[in-house]
Amino acid sequence: MDDLSRIDAALTRLLPTRAAPATLAEAMRYAVLSGGKRVRPRLVHAAGAIADARPATLDHAGAAVEFIHASSLVHDDLPAMDDDHLRRGKPTVHARFGEAIAILTGDALQSAAFATLAAAPAEAAVVRHWVRLLADAAGAAGMAGGQTLDIESEAKPSTETELEARHRGKTGALIRASVAIGATAGNLSEAEVSALDAYGAAVGLGFQIQDDVLNATGKANLGKPAGSDQRRGLPTYASVLGVAGAREAAHRQLRQALDALTIFGSRADALAALARGMIERER
Amino acid sequence: MDDLSRIDAALTRLLPTRAAPATLAEAMRYAVLSGGKRVRPRLVHAAGAIADARPATLDHAGAAVEFIHASSLVHDDLPAMDDDHLRRGKPTVHARFGEAIAILTGDALQSAAFATLAAAPAEAAVVRHWVRLLADAAGAAGMAGGQTLDIESEAKPSTETELEARHRGKTGALIRASVAIGATAGNLSEAEVSALDAYGAAVGLGFQIQDDVLNATGKANLGKPAGSDQRRGLPTYASVLGVAGAREAAHRQLRQALDALTIFGSRADALAALARGMIERER
Is A149–B123 a contact, with Cβ atoms under 8 angstroms apart? Predict the structure, then answer.
């Protein structure tokens, strides 16, 4: 079974929908199982493999980060937020199930993430550390905070520093947490965990900068119409630094990410390939 | 310091708003610190006292359940849900900060709950157990599920069995989890934890039945206009069993709750008083 099949099987198995009302269970499955690149669980597995973690443990950790990701997409798409009706070519959760169910679906997926961590076959101390990492990444200093800055910066000029804070919160925090969760699922030295954290921080920022580039150049296949950031008047790396400057900024993050991996030698090949795929992608 | 002052101090101290954007931090404080009876943290403290748990540990546990409660209120008030503009006589979070910020505030408060559990001065195995209890109470089989049943049952006749499932999810699950979290914060036998769980389940259901009674009799001071359930066509214990029948159903739960406490003797006086206060209240 390749990584992606394994990840999708875990998502299907670990979605806590059995005791849920039918509509909510269906909306949760729809939100999680409608495709996606599974970048975050792949990072969990690749970082976890370096740490010699048990694959069954990483299944739980990977599913948890993906549930948080799906939760944030469902809420971001809502009319009061980005008001998107299509994602990956299919109706968004609120377009299909109504706004009220979409709000509850996002809420229930966030809960599902923490339930999944708590049920992971891992030591309690590790689970506790993961809960902290994931809650911080999802919360006020992470994704919810980044999304708030997004809303507030609409139609206002931004500096690169402001953009970085917004991107690190909105997208970077969960990607970084995914790597950190994988890294702490097994046995690594503090220096190694720290190196992986530097990798995760750089990849997370680089990924979002490349998102800006693709959105500006109309090549985006990001689940939203190309150019939608400009139409909303939302400042991006591309609008602030120009497309060429934004590409250079993304590559700077890629180089930082790859540099952080050098201490692992060829053991980090999968993480290096993931970083390249995430930041050099053209769609 | 009495219980309520201690609880409010913990909520203020543990709200993770320092690294948050100013608007989001303000909205989170507004949602949590605008009053409320703090029923759930009081249950945590009272159950925890029987278990001889450290008060500092209970501060974290109590704040976590209140953050989940506040999170659900913010989302329940949204236009796509109950569309309430006032709560406890003040504008709701979306009325004051806008819908987008209200969605993010609810999300960030849920994350804050789990971050607070993870940071509690308690053994990792206890924290892990709490995360499971709280995530299950908040999620698809708990509050989000109950709220889904609420939405789906609008203007449809309900049986008492359906009502019970809805109430146990929407309100009962978090009240029950609050008691269970307090009960497992210290040292109790399995039988004692189990007795407290029976107490929590009965109190949770009885509390919501009494809510129906007060809503129907117009005495409600529940943060929503009296009679609002009827106007929405939402079946309640009062509409299905009549007000007298609903009162009797609430008292049946109170008796079950008090019966469950007998093994503790006078050590459970605070829990008994809380149950009476929650189910015999007339506003």
Answer: no
The residue in chain A having the minimum alpha-carbon distance to the alpha carbon of residue B25 is A140
Query: Tokens 């500006």 identify what position?
Result: A216
**What is the DSSP code string of B29-96?**
HHHHSS----HHHHHHHHHHHHTT--HHHHHHHHHHHHHHHHHHHHHHTSTTTT---EETTEE-HHHH
Is A26 an interface residue toward B (CB < 8 Å)?
no
Is B152 at the interface with chain A, CB within 8 A? yes
Can you give the pLDDT of all 283 residues of chain A as single tens digits? 568 999 999 999 999 888 899 999 999 999 999 888 999 999 999 999 999 999 999 999 999 999 999 999 999 999 999 999 999 899 999 999 999 999 999 999 999 999 999 999 999 999 999 999 999 999 999 999 999 998 888 767 678 888 999 999 999 999 999 999 999 999 999 999 999 999 999 999 999 999 999 989 886 555 555 555 655 678 899 989 999 999 999 999 999 999 999 999 999 999 999 999 999 988 7
- The full set of domain ranges for chain B reads 3-280
Could you give the CA distance from residue B65 to residue A16 in angstroms, rounded to a whole number? Answer: 21
Q: What ipTM is given for this predicted complex?
A: 0.95
B window 71-110, beta carbon within 8 A of A: 71-72, 75, 78, 80-81, 98-108, 110
Residues of A with Cβ-Cβ distance to B81 under 8 angstroms: 100, 103
Report yes or no: B172 at the A interface, CB cutoff 8 Å: no
Total H helices, total E strands in chain A: 14, 2
Q: Touching check for A16 and chain B: CB below 8 Å?
A: yes
CB contact under 8 A, B131 and A112: no
Report in angstroms the alpha-carbon separations of B60 from A4, B51, B118, B132: 38, 16, 9, 16
Rounded Cα distance, B263 and B47, in Å: 14
Tell me if A140 and B71 make a contact (CB, 8 A cut-off): no
What's the rounded Cα separation, in Å, for the pair B62 and B46?
10
CB B83 within 8 A of CB B73: no
Q: Measured over all CA atoms, what is the biggest interatomic distance in chain A, rounded to whole angstroms?
A: 51
C-alpha dist (Å) from residue B127 to A90, A135, B134, B183, B187: 39, 14, 10, 13, 14
Q: Do the beta carbons of residue B119 and residue B139 sit within 8 Å?
A: no
CA separation, residue B63 to residues B40, B178, B209 (Å): 9, 10, 25
Q: Domain B3-280: which CATH class?
A: mainly alpha
Q: Is A119 helix (H, G, I), strand (E, B) or coil?
A: coil
